[in-house]
């Protein structure tokens, strides 16, 4: 018998039954980053004025992907989301881009996966738009930074 | 005017026109990893016998997500794929899981994004199945490792 | 700072947080039309007997699309729908087709966008099925005609 | 006027309005089977040790498809699901595979279609993975075996 | 090492590489049936005049689902389809409905799964529209009846 | 027998068989508009500086929707697209927004529906982002303006 919630006693992958969990307001935040060459970052920052579409495109892709989480992650529960925000900040120190997502719902299960999915697809979209000028980029440091609501209460990384 | 292929002269995000590119056989490989606590890794490795469903589930999620790349990444071109393979290996050294994806097509544009999307969603699926026992996991080191076909020829990281 | 609900103070597109809104029964209705040549309309009306599949196909496409609204409109909230009806009426006066959609839910946000999406895709489906005989068709007059439920109460165009 | 719930008085297909139905816990179970040659079954059972990926793949496909039911079945209501389980058992007596699905929700309408869709896509996935060695397979005996919750109470086949 | 094409030498599920296969015109046909009570069949046949929307709705759902095959069946290749036809015939002898699908493409792999998926979802849609009047229906006899194109040539059940 | 290409001789909706059509480069352009109050237009134009996210969001939604055309329009053929561009221009004369889409492919069938779908969803996205300040907006004048490639040659509205 497994101690892993997503495997049953026969080792079979399953969606956990959340039907008995209380319906509460829940939130989760996640972060990630795209590392790139300083020249690539400079190009985007130059391109930001006046239109900013690299970052805006990636933020939007992250928001839309968060809504598709249950279709992408096999054992995730489909649930309505009351808010999704994805914010991308260029960072000279990396150099690269910091990506932050915040997701809220009122439901029976948490939304960490939705926040992580938003971050991941935003990073992939940045990568897609910049890959013609920078082959060596890397996506990383994707993790949950805060979570609230549900039986386990609030949690902060 | 931008030097970025995905912005037009007005800074507007656009799908690059690949209509004039030759139809060639193309391949791409990408990698990534999920870092977790040694206890989490041990649980999965124990659970692997006899069924292996954590890893099998995440590999399959990666394959299926690679096929949805053009729906997830706003400026990606929809294209038929002739092969998608996602392989996950537990690694005591990390500790965690190494994820590798290989994608092939015959078409007018490369498949790096499909390989990266397969890796990313496989990592997220591992995260989802293990998050109940390990809150501090981190996804990272996602990058393209090889690419072949198309005007720019072969490339290896 | 913007007065537009879908932009944050930095001008970034966002999903509005509806988490504090009351859960109420909500409904919305929308209309639209496809203008075509009188001969095109006559062909459909003749084809209606005995099977009616042009109109039935477009109505069904509208219903199915209404359920995909949150996947299509970037900042729309995913929400369960309790009813979707799309009705198409041939109209000799236009000449063309009148399309009407009615959507109901019990939730935290309105369903105008679902009704409008149902109307739009129904119009596009009519266009698709008739474009081989009529190149000059036009879709128009798509608007919300009624809305009820939620903080702002009922509204009629 | 039709006695069929999914046709209105004009014979038009429609989503039934479930807005007045009580929100209750609901469950449904469905079964089905894939009939194949005894040699095909033997190959899978041999392949099961040590990895079992034919069955695991089909079970997972069933779970994921159940979550897409409202996108596939035109007049189905989109609704959150609290649990989906798909279990496949090789059966020498058929010979073939027995597929069983159980779906739970808390909502205004039943989940028979979600259970049936999970069974159907699991059967199709088995078929896909085995068709290179067995052209004559057949999918059948797909039906609802149990249902609970809602106005009509519990029901068992 | 497995003799199953969809498992690699380690037993891992994989998409078969079709990149070396010739691009040929391919077709596949599949059938299936929904068994119901004679009264249910009579209701549909009565309802058919004048609108026929139960059958038209299910046929259309089958066509649309065939186009989603690669998203539903994990190891199926995404490929453009040049034709999809789904035809449903009421049959007093069963009693019930016969469902037939025919799919065509020009590509590197066959379209049996597309035909089978079209049949399956058409059957499920009939079930959905009739389940309020008939709880004991059963879907069955789903199989491939003909296949042409590709290395293995034509085949007929 | 119907003269409509999308109905067979029995009046049944069908996907036209394009398997015999030549593979050629094809393009289509479509336009549409959103009419709004002058104050609404002014708000967007003010908000455009410096970020422009209302228009960028709607353009991107149009591009992404064009790629989903075959999933939305029941009898459309799925096909790879080599380019999609959606451009939105504020227009004081309307007052409102002009939407223009251009789609290219190399395939067996035209891409008018993809261009029209891009325009329609871009209009709906503008509507969604502005509906909180303007209830009386109207979407209209959606039509094909140019088409090239294929048996019927070039065409301009």
Automatic annotation (TrEMBL), chains A, B, C, D, E, F:
Transmembrane segments: none annotated. Pfam families: MoaC (PF01967). Its EC number is 4.6.1.17. GO terms for molecular function: cyclic pyranopterin monophosphate synthase activity. The keyword Lyase applies. Residues 15-150 form the Molybdopterin cofactor biosynthesis C (MoaC) domain. The active site is at 128. Keywords: Lyase, Molybdenum cofactor biosynthesis. Belongs to the MoaC family. The keyword Cytoplasm does not apply. Catalyzes the conversion of (8S)-3',8-cyclo-7,8-dihydroguanosine 5'-triphosphate to cyclic pyranopterin monophosphate (cPMP). This is Cyclic pyranopterin monophosphate synthase. It catalyses: (8S)-3',8-cyclo-7,8-dihydroguanosine 5'-triphosphate = cyclic pyranopterin phosphate + diphosphate. GO terms for biological process: Mo-molybdopterin cofactor biosynthetic process. Homohexamer; trimer of dimers. It is an enzyme of class 4 (lyase). Pathway: Cofactor biosynthesis; molybdopterin biosynthesis. PANTHER family: MOLYBDOPTERIN COFACTOR SYNTHESIS PROTEIN A (PTHR22960). Substrate binds at residues 75-77, 113-114. InterPro entries: MoaC (IPR023045), MoaC_bact/euk (IPR047594), MoaC_sf (IPR036522), MoCo_biosynth_MoaA/MoaC (IPR050105), Mopterin_CF_biosynth-C_dom (IPR002820).
């Amino acid at each position: 018998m497994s101690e892993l919630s997503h495997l049953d006693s026969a080792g079979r992958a399953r969606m956990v039954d959340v039907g008995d969990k209380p319906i509460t307001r829940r939130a989760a935040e996640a972060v990630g980053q795209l590392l790139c060459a300083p020249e690539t970052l400079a190009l985007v920052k130059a391109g930001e004025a006046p239109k900013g579409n690299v970052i805006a495109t990636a933020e939007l892709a992250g928001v839309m992907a968060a809504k598709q989480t249950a279709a992408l992650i096999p054992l995730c529960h489909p649930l309505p989301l009351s808010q999704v925000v994805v914010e991308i900040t260029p960072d000279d120190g990396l150099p690269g881009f910091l990506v932050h997502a915040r997701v809220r719902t009122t439901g029976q299960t948490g939304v960490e996966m939705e926040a992580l999915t938003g971050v991941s697809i935003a990073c992939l979209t940045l990568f897609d738009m910049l890959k013609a000028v920078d082959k060596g980029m890397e996506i990383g440091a994707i993790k949950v930074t805060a979570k609230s609501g549900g039986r386990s209460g609030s949690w902060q990384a």
